[in-house]
Every structure is written in C-alpha cells, then in structure tokens.
Design a protein that fits this description.
There is one protein chain. With about 450 residues, this protein is of the alpha+beta class. It is elongated and about 80 Å long. About 40% of the residues are buried. It is built from eight helices and 29 strands. Strands 12, 13, 14, 15, 16, 27, 28 and 29 form an eight-stranded mixed beta sheet that branches. Helix content is about 15%, strand content about 35%.
Length: about 450
Amino acid sequence: MKKKYIVSLVIIGLMLAATLSIGTGYGVWVSTQDKAELSSTTLDCFKIYYPDGKDVIEMRNITPVTTEKGLETSPYTLAIENICSVDKELQVRLNILDETTVDLKALTLEATGNVTKETSLYNNLEVAKSEMDNVTQSRLVGLATVKPGETVRTNIKLWFDEVKSPKIEKDKIFKMQFELIDTDSSVKAKFYEMLLADKAKIEAKAAPNFANVSTSSDGLYVATSSTGKTYYYRGVVTNNYVSFGNFIWRIISINEDGTIKLILDKSATYSIFNNLKSPEKDFAGYKYLWYNTETASTIVEALDVWYNNNIITKDLDKYVVAADYCNDTGYKNDKHIYFNAYNRLVTEHTPSLTCPTSTSDFGGIYNNKVGLITADEVVMAGGEYNANNMNYYLYNGESFITFTPFDFNAGRPNIFSVTDKGALSSVAVDKQIGLRPVITLDSNITVTGSGTIDNPYTIDME
C-alpha cells in the first residue's frame, strides 16, 4: 500500500513538472539550449538558430485575449550569431505571408532580450521592404548591433488583442515569417510603399457613405480621379503623423505616382482669403482678373510667405513637389449663386478629386508647391456640412479655411471652411481664419518612425 502511494506521488510530480514546462513555454526552453541542438540558417553575416527550424508561425482558430493574457503567452525565441569579423547591425522583422486571411488590426507583440519592443500593435511598427515574393507586409520589430562572434537573443510574444477584435472567425488564418537581415544589405522602402503596404485590401474596401461624418478608425480608402488613383485617410487616424520642418503634419492622401499630400496639424497663422474690393464673386478665386490684370488673392501671399520662411529658407524645398490645387469656381447664374461644390457636398454628398477647369476669369487649377485642402477632401476625411465632428483626424479645435468657394450672396462671396467643432461650414472671404498650409512630398523619400504622435514619420535627410 505504501509503495503504491509513493508511486502515485511520483506520477503526480511528473505530471506537475510537465504542466509547468508547457506553461513556461517552448521558446524559453530554446534560450537555454546549446546552439548545436537547434536548426540554423546562415544569411550574410548572421547565423540564425530557430527551434526545430520554425521560422514560420501559423495560427488557426484564433481567440483574442487581453493584454495581460497576451503577455503570459510563451515567446518565440531566436538566437542570432555574427559570424563575420566586423560589427553588424541586425534588423528583426515580422513578415506577413500571403496565406493570411485574418484582419491584422488586433495583432499585438512584445519583444524582450537583446532586441526589444514594448507592447505594440503590429500596424504601428515601422514598415520595411521585403524581397520575398509571398510577403504582403513586412514590419520592423527592432535593431541590435552584434559584435564579431557574439550571439544575441530576442523573445517575441504574439497575440490578438480582444479590445481591437473581440471576436475572430474560426476559419481565419494567420501566417508569418521571421526575417533577420543585415541593415547594410537591406533595401529601404519608399515612404509611399510603406503607407500602401496593404494596397490590395485598401482597394477591396467599399466606398464610405459621405452623407455621414466618420467617427471610427476607417483608415485608408481609394478613389479615382482624372489623374489616377488616390489613397486617402478617413476617420479617426492615429498613424498619419509626419514631422517635417519642425512642424507636425497629417497625411491627407497618397497619389498613384507615390507623392504624398500633407496638411499642417495646427494653423500656421490667421489670414483672410481675400480683400473685398467690390461686391463681386471673382474674389472667391485664388487669382482673378482685376481691370484686365491678373491679381492674386490675399491668401496667395500668406501661403507664399509662410512657405518661403519655413520651407525654402530651411533648404527643405527639394523634398516638396509642385502639385495641382483646385479652386473650383464653377457656378450657375442666379440671384443667389452657389458654386459647384455646394451641390456636390451639401446636396448630393458626392465629393470628387477631379477638378473642373474654370471657364471664368477667376479660380481654376493651380500647380504650386503650397496650397490649401479642398472641401471635397474634408468630406472624404470624415467631415460633413453643418455636422460637428470632433473625432476625425482633421479636427484640431480651430476654425480653418479651405480652397473651395461656397456661394455668392448679398454681394459677398463665401468660402467653405471648417469650424472649431469640426463641421464643414462657410466663411466670408474677408474674415480672418486659421491657415493650414498643404504641401506634397516627393515620391522618392524614405522615412523612419511609425506615424504615431509619439513616433511620427520623419524624413531621411540627405
């Protein structure tokens, strides 16, 4: 009897030890093993040790969990040895493979060891450029400098956060691959390539309902204009911040040619759109004929002075390209004249990125280095006429002017504006209001950062 009791205790003890081993995690076990016991791959100067050669991770029947539970999951542990005779900078990346069908908005990770990353959403990591054919997205977890003969380790935990995705359909698949690369041999993605890393999914999204404001995390959509496709941000966006010229900007859109349109996050100054020299609708134009002489509105000088003082004098003009800015002054004659955009945006809720050519002697399309946002772009971003919205990325608590004429009534032209409550509205051309310059960045630039307010995209200067 006593012998049986002892045997039972031994069995229970073994079961308990096995349970603890599973809870501690297979990844932790790897970090304690001799490297010779692990499968390895050699890439350039790095010899990489994977447990059982598992550089690919696949998840099915995914159950979202809390951050606390996610941090308790077993890590995937990688050991990387520098086999060259000089210091090398290691990049640890996570590549999403094309078999993945799950939405990645809830994918969360944490890395500890020699390569670290505090708890972060995958989509907020810096985008990298992978040369692998079956990779749809590549993002940088972190960096480490590895000395000759040195081995570094990183422990990466992955989970889907239940706050971002309370439920995930059982048939959804997550498949990713670790990529370890020497910074010297890596090809850095262009800024637009980073932003459009998930282009196929963006293009698959249905167009939003522009009759309503957007107060959700809508992200990027695609629209077509006379110049091609434009990918524009809408709603509550937390990853379109750019630091440039000692200012913070927000990305409005990415053009098909790779150029990127930005708007200053806060008003640079206050200005009127134009002096009202007489009761004429012409003064809603960016430029107009005055006694047969082309004349610039007040807003032209205000923008040009700001651009010269803050971009040109700081030797930043080389990063900015001239782009078309639309001052749509088309209208139908009536006692109360409404410009074309009124019907598009207030009545029909059909914003457009195609700018009609002006048939008047004022307004039209201008190819400049600096301009203003259009009322159409405000609606596409999540604004709406006469509807307050303090939950989309253009809202900043200030009233500001757009480039789009509203109407001409009682001898006074009015321009579309945005109120301090985020509603699309109108303002007389001779009223002081916030000025938020808009510029377009060159398609060849590269950046660092992840686009958040704490880590905005920052241009790699020459």
